[in-house]
Design brief:
It comes from Streptomyces marincola. Its main location: membrane. This is ABC transporter. 62% of the residues lie in helices and 9% in strands. The chain has 643 residues and is α/β, with parallel strands linked by helices. The chain folds into 3 domains: 361 residues, ABC transporter transmembrane region fold; 191 residues, Rossmann fold; 78 residues, 3-Layer(aba) Sandwich (Rossmann fold), CATH 3.40.50. The structure holds adenosine-5'-triphosphate. Adenosine-5'-triphosphate binds next to helix 13.
Length: 643
Amino acid sequence: MSASEQLLFGGPLLYDTGWSSHDGAFTRLGLWSMVATLPRLIRTTVRLAAEADRGALRLVAAAEIGRGAAQAVGLVAVNTVLAALLAGGEPADRLREALPALAVVAVTALVAALLTAASTYGSGRLEPKVERVATERYLARASRVELAAIEDDQFHRLLDTAQYGAASARRMIDYCIRVVNALLSLIAAAGVLTVLHPVLLPLLALMTVPSMWSTLITTRRRYCSFRTWVQHARAGRVLSSELTATETAAEIRVHQVGPFLLKHFRAMSASAEAEQTRLARLDARTGLWASAWTGLAGAATYLTLGALAWTGVMAMSVAGTAVLAIRTGSASLGGMVSSVNNLYDESLFVADLDQLCVRAAQWAIPEGGAPVPARPGRITFEDVTFRYPGTEGEPALSGVSLTIPVGHVTALVGENGSGKSTLVKLLAGLYLPESGRVCWDGVPTSCADRRQIFDRIAMVAQDFNRWRFTARVNIAIGAPGVPVDDERLRAAARDAGADSVIESLPRGWDTLLARGYQNGCQLSGGQWQRLGIARAHYRDAPVLIVDEPTAALDAKEEQRVFDQIRDLADAGQTVVLITHRMASVRHADLVHVLHQGRLTESGSPEELLARRGGRFRELYGIQAAQFGRPVDSGHLDGAVPGR
Ligand SMILES: Nc1ncnc2c1ncn2[C@@H]1O[C@H](COP(=O)(O)OP(=O)(O)OP(=O)(O)O)[C@@H](O)[C@H]1O
């Protein structure tokens, strides 16, 4: 490691992600453990393939077994050809004698080629399906777990690693076919050699084991060295991206950071280059050792064969076939070693995916439960305490008891971090209370059918999602279970004031709302907010939760949104409103004031404002003072703090 890396990064630049824990797993695999894990790896691959497409799996398996058999038959036929050619007699007679076997050799070669093509077709069909099935498993499980699971560090790490499982599953098919292919070649060669002469089998082992061993060592050395080299290269890449990023551009110029970073870039590149040179030297040396080893084993094999043929213990034709069989059997060994290693590497990610599925099932939002009325009468919090998973200290909510009446606007007010957003997440059944109950018409969220609760809610969260889809989908995704209805879309956009935003887009409803893509468009914060509100309108649920719905809107639009919220409540919809703008609170029928996770006051805006020494009155006073109005100067209707 260079001094630059020590200075800039405090040590080697290693990833701290779930998947990086598998880095180097390959180096822990010895020759014996490789052989021992192979059946398990093949089983895993077969299971994945069977889930995706049994037909294609059968095709590949049959083609590979057939190809191995064709290879064995071909070798036996070669032996017959050699025996005929090396026998005594006229050349023409010997050739005639060899012809049928020659025909068998040709036919087996043709069959092997056809079967290879069939296997290529089968694996080509299988691989994308395996990836799709694994991806679907991943996505379906991940989207069904409790919100608490997403916040759990360990689960999140697993989620991070398991996302690579699908691509790994696809690659496992390819590596597995290569391994099986090489194995069958080896078995075919071993089978034929055993039939030809029992002494030939140890000769095959003599040739293959050292070459397998040396390939394993070479591959592992290369891999270790590559990992070191890649760290230096990564550090260099970090510097170059810092040097060219838009965010750093101004500071780099004014503070003249460029030469400083360049100096360290050069030093780090020198480390990377030195490592590559070392890698090349090592490669050359181990390559030479491996060749010497394999060469010696080969020489010993061929000398033994020669001696056996010379002394007449073995027929010349058998020795010739043995040479061919040994070459065939050991040819794909090198590839097989690295394929087994790759197979092992990939299997770790697939195992993570399997583990994720198990953990996700434990964390899954339960199916079914007590039914929740389509139009609930009231929602109550009964002495609710809640702490975020993995956090210690003060709970985010403690001992909160309140009622959210139906068909009214209830405002939640309080300073930052007082627990307003947490409260609505509990209301929506996204989290369950640690103690106490949140009840929808008397049904606690802990035993209610939570999918039904979700159905009853439309939510415009503070950080509502800006989907990188078209404007149409960005609104229609509010009700993903029903077909997109253009009339309903237009009405929702009109109600939320998003119609003018859509009209201004170059391709109207079909404009892609994402920067960095062709024809993609980026909206302003306020425009996005209108779309978010339109999405909630489109959902058309009995309970509407709006968290700071107007933070990015201009004054006119804000007024319109609040008037509309009022209209919705007058029409029977339940609205839960979180806002820091005290002026907006005058639209509410009931206000709950939270402070450090506790409910401190409840009442109508007028009641709370009249309460001397109350927190609401204090918060209101602070905002009113910014506009030069004392809190006593008038009613809520007249005052416009926050504007
Ligand atoms: N996902 C989370 N994990 C851990 N703690 C959290 C999480 N979300 C919020 N908190 C903590 O819970 C407390 C209440 O946060 P909450 O977001 O409910 O406050 P809020 O009243 O909505 O704040 P704001 O007005 O800033 O939106 C805070 O102390 C916050 O740090």
